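ESCALATION

Customer reports they have been waiting on this structure for their group meeting. Please prioritize. Original submission:
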Amino acid sequence: MKGLGGILLGSMLVLAGPAWADDDASELRALKARLRQLEQRMEQQARRQEALAARADTQVATKAPSPFDPCAPGKLCYRGVSFTFGGWIDLTGIYRSRNLASDTGSVFNAIPFPQSRNFNTDEARFSARQTRLSVLAEANATTDTHIAGFGEIDFEGAAQTANSVATNSYNPRLRQASIEIDRTDLGLHVLAGQTWSLNAPSKAGIDPRVADTPGVIDFELVPGFLGARQPGIRVWQDIGPEFKLAISAENPQTSFFGGNTPLVGMPAVGPQGVLNPNLLVNLTGPGGSFFNSLNNVSLNHVPDITVKAAWDPLLGPYKLHLEGWAMYRDFYDRFNFANHDVNTASFGVHLSAEIVPKTLELQASASYGALGRFTATPFPDVTVRQDGSIQPLPITAFLVGTVWHTTPSLDLYAYAGLEKTRATFSDVGTVPFGYGNPLYNNLGCNIENSPAATCNGNTSEVRQYTAGFYDTIFKGAYGTIKAGAQYSYTQRFAFSGVGGAPKTDDHIVMTQLRYYPF
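Update from on-call: job pushed to the front of the queue and completed.
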């Protein structure tokens, strides 16, 4: 500040140069006095500015910290927990050449034979029920312990109050709700909650939240894809960077098949047509049990146990995932004062690969065993003999598909799949039992409006060929909008009975518009 005063004084002296000799001492003192006043004012102004700055710093330091932490784009961070939102808003258009009275999921085992009036009526509808919302919460408990919670819902629930007449008030439905704890130093992972079953295929490693599902519109996916979403507990171990080994205990359920109407013979003592009253395979939930009283819960007392090994070799720019699994299941019923218990083992393999990096993908699966409830058809798990003892139905399933990323915005896909089972039955004299019994009556399967008892038509095999595309219309900070279409041709074959082996088919076209805001 004194240096600035000296500069001002020097400037005044220069301007006064020639007249300096004429100025008297009083004028010089007055000039110095004004200069001192100017220096004081400038020093006072500087002190005021310093005081204001100090006060502002104090306010910033004492302001309450925000609970929201800075985090990566697309996430919300709160008190050390990061939240990632997912899902989409969806409208699906549906056309079927055979009327299944189904929403976005096609029940392939219900494609009607010519006996049904539905065979000669097509169906078309719109649905927004594939709309899906999810949230992933993640946090680090320690430097080596990572915690994640995941929840996901859609609107495919259908309570008795839900209908398509006026409001289309279909209710939300729980898809997934799980907690995962990861120890990075040990390579150990534990998951508890509802998620994809361990036998559902993954695209990489052991991914409980995302399955390697065919990229189609139909909610029932493609025959040959096996999987379920159910509660349980899972543990898996990383063995090096490429290999993982997992085991799970999951909620069991059994889909029973009781019998059909024979062409010959008399009603049997055991389960014939309608299950014998002495046979107990299912229970309905009483009031207050938190189960819908219209839905059955099968008798189960042992969880499904699944083991899986997954291998993701490092192949430069190429991605390859291989996995194999085996499942133990226990089936259980009671008949004539005795319990019946049957154990089974099933197995499967899955491959996911990039044939051309970031351009062409391939996936293939094969499975065998008592897997009825996991199938897309769906098949039953077991049937019963005359004495109530259980006979598992062996399922063979194959799926192959490819996705071609033709441009950054356009994907083309094609899949082929099949699911089939073997006739599993027994007879008491001329009275047939089981599934696919050649004594079952199929005489009316090709006659419209014939009595239901004349077309048993136990499904032996379902095949499907499908192709479609997804096109990214808009993409930016606001999200992504995609449009797609799918065509599928599905064939349903029945076991041979008295009157032949009926078959039927269905042409299905679906369209979709989706907005991904997250």
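Sent to customer with the following note: The helical segments are 2-15, 25-62.
Escalation resolved.
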